Amino acid sequence: MFFRQRVNQDASISYFFGCGGQGKGVAVDVLAGDEDWYLTQAKELNVGITTVFDTHIHADHLSGGRKLASLCGADYALHESNAAKTSYDFLPMHDQQVLMTGNTRIQVLHTPGHTEDSICLLVSDFRRSETPWFVITGDSLFVGSVGRPDLAGREQEMAARLWSSLHTQLLNRPDELEIFPGHQAGSSCGADISGKPSSTIGFEKRWNPLLSLNEQDFVIAVIANIPPRPANMDVLVASNLGQTVALTTAP
Length: 251
What we know:
The chain is of the alpha/beta class. The protein has 6 helices and 14 strands. The mean pLDDT is 95.
């Protein structure tokens, strides 16, 4: 397996990984403008990009996922709940769905809470073991924090759903499972995010203060510490859904 983590200037984190032996790669949470980086990586590694994922419809940046998929003839994948919202076709993903990319196995975990459509990607390298090696957690679980629950305007409901997603989909996994989040410190997508770009389930259960709380206390704590909304959030979401919009800038 090859694995590349791209830490971006806006504190978002993107990924490119897959099976080098069979020449197949997967890109995750690509930023608009970064498409050439993935094409260059694929050429250097002598792999083709077969699937491009967005872990959710992003509210803090423009996605380059669809453009990259178009450039390399890959599938563009989102959670199936976006089918009625987008103005474009995509490969719909559902909870527990499995994709094989050469010897790389990817299982989709639906983790609503940050957004309705949030997914995580549980990854195994079959050349070493069928046991999952790592999980790309998107904006559901960060190092030291969790995703903000207020973007849909129903923060109490979504915080409760996030607590359930974390405990049923992620925290019941082995302690040694590595996590790779969608953001690090400096992002508006969660409060008190660590600057470290990876962790493990066991370390987060021990040191992430939100993960030991019961549901009620979790909801209270997360809602009490919501960062300011991303600039141009509504416009960014609309654009990422395929609607024609114009970005604005502050005077």
